[in-house]
Amino acid sequence: xxxxxxxxxxxxxxxxxxxxxxxxxxxxxxxxxxxxxxxxxxxxxxxxxxxxxxxxxxxxxxxxxxxxxxxxxxxxxxxxxxxxxxxxxxxxxxxxxxxxxxxxxxxxxxxxxxxxxxxxxxxxxxxxxxxxxxxxxxxxxxxxxxxxxxxxxxxxxxxxxxxxxxxxxxxxxxxxxxxxxxxxxxxxxxxxxxxxxxxxxxxxxxxxxxxxxxxxxxxxxxxxxxxxxxxxxxxxxxxxxxxxxxxxxxxxxxxxxxxxxxxxxxxxxxxxxxxxxxxxxxxxxxxxxxxxxxxxxxxxxxxxxxxxxxxxxxxxxxxxxxxxxxxxxxxxxxxxxx
Length: 338
Prior knowledge:
3-stranded antiparallel sheet, CofD, 2 domains, CofD-like_dom_sf, Gluconeogen_factor, 7-stranded parallel sheet, 14 helices, Putative gluconeogenesis factor, LPPG:FO 2-phospho-L-lactate transferase activity
């Protein structure tokens, strides 16, 4: 009976980074999905960036949050893992305990971040798989429409310019590459989910690893993009939902997005705390024709969740749609829309 139950668990690969990824993963856990999270390794801000500067390891912050989201450990243990030291603690200021643990495991026996995360997944009783997109720290590079080029995720976001395209490089000059386990998971998936998350700095850094992007395009799974609710300063200012998809398709040189989840519920005027969430600018505009012209099925609904004067995706609502779609072949692409 158990084997039959597992056999019918949809295999869902979620690719991204940032704060939106754990929200989707937590919801998928409740639905008994077979989850693989492919997590960006190009983050160079905050605690992750500081650790990366001092220790030659992949930045651990996004990986830490994903591990916590999928962990079956008691709440107290997860709270300890996620605990961030106070700014008054000069030596550990701003560091999360989990980041330090991941860095330590990576350094032990020179095993690398991929094996370290697999070991930690067992310790934390992770329900699913957590795969760093690369075993080596990568640098995100951006070319802007004014012809300038900047390297570094934090620097790119702070530049305040219009991004034309992005790519990733490794410090040792080797070709950025994902482990075979990442490629195999993508090719074996029933569904591939992108987002929600920063378009240029959370989603595309994964797809710009050549064998990851190729696997996503080759996979028979439906590719679902969860479009952001708000535009992002320094990245997607004044973007429509169709603009987000257009950028993704242009980077992989084909229309590979099958379905887009779009929020159509208006954000109440003056609700957003502009000081706390200063990277958010305007609500993403809805362009149904632009999406359909790119061969996308559009699922539009109220995916909005308002909390603490912030604007988020309603994880449960998003996951309900993902589970309804899970396992459908690409053959029905663009034949229907909601």
